[in-house]
Amino acid sequence: EVQLVESGGGLVKPGGSLRLSCAASGFTFSHAWMSWVRQAPGKGLEWIGRIKSKTDSGTVDLAAPVKGRFTVSRDDSNNTLFLQMNSLTTEDTALYFCTRYGDSYVDAFDIWGRGTMVTVSS
Amino acid sequence: SYELTQPPSVSVSPGQTASITCSGDNLGDKYACWYQQKPGQSPVLVIHKDTKRPPGIPERFSGSNSGNTATLTISGTQAMDEADYYCQAWDSSTASYVFGTGTKVTVL
């Protein structure tokens, strides 16, 4: 079964750090371009970062609001995606989804996890 | 930065057609896709590459994209189609995926 399972969310104080993980199964993770998308409570979807496959350079791209604070990495040997979040603010409070960007035939986010909640509060 | 604008809400009677627009500069030059999100659930891809339906998505969902507007059309809308819908495109100038503002579809 194709699946993405996020973990690592929780309550953190402003200025703190958190590392999210996403365990992938049911597809060839090493070939996939992976992204993180977040959704603040009652708000819309916001893309925050992606990492290409290593065969496509492994480049990381980040959205402007998180550049310099967040980074995306991957461990292909363990089929796991990571999101390292530093200097967190209350505006980072959201449900964080791990998602796969499908191949050139799809050109869209075709697999989504259920999300892990991050709450930034003092 | 690139922006995609959607109407906040659309209401439709059961069996009728719902059309949801997504507006952005020269959006027709990019591929648009659409996601459905029901309360408490993760988004689901319903249209990709402007017009294509993923496996398992009902034929009543269709898409188009031209000029500055992409449109998701739900024909013969059913109660189960009540959800939030988001368009999305890739902005190469900023190397960013961009989501639309979202539209709540209510089936009255």
Describe, in short, the structure shown.
The complex is a heterodimer of chains A (about 120) and B (about 110). With about 120 residues, chain A is mostly beta strands.
Give an overview in words.
The complex is a heterodimer of chains A (122) and B (108). In chain A, strands 2, 4, 5, 6, 9, 10 and 11 form a 7-stranded mixed sheet that branches. A 4-stranded antiparallel sheet of chain A has the order 1-3-8-7, with no helix packed on it. Chain A is 0% helix and 51% strand. The model of chain A has no long low-confidence stretch (mean pLDDT 97). Chain A contains no helices and 11 strands. Chain B is mainly β. In chain B, a hairpin with a 4-residue loop joins strand 7 and strand 8 (96-99). Chains A and B meet through strand 5 and strand 10 of A and strand 3, strand 7 and strand 8 of B.
Number of strands of chain B: 9
| Beta-strand residue percentage of chain A | over 45%
Tell me the fraction of residues in β-strands of chain B, as a range.
over 45%
> What is the mean pLDDT of chain A?
97
Helix content of chain A: under 10%
Binned, the helix content of chain B reads under 10%
Treating each run of at least 4 consecutive H or I residues as one helix, how many helices of chain A? 0
- What is the string of helix and strand elements of chain A? EEEEEEEEEEE
Topology of helices and strands:
The complex is a heterodimer of chains A (122) and B (108).
Chain A: E1 3-7, E2 10-12, E3 18-25, E4 33-39, E5 45-51, E6 60-62, E7 70-75, E8 80-85, E9 94-101, E10 109-112, E11 116-120
Chain B: E1 9-12, E2 18-23, E3 33-37, E4 44-47, E5 61-66, E6 69-74, E7 83-91, E8 96-99, E9 103-107
Parallel strand pairs in B: 1-9
Antiparallel strand pairs in B: 2-6, 3-4, 3-7, 5-6, 7-8, 7-9
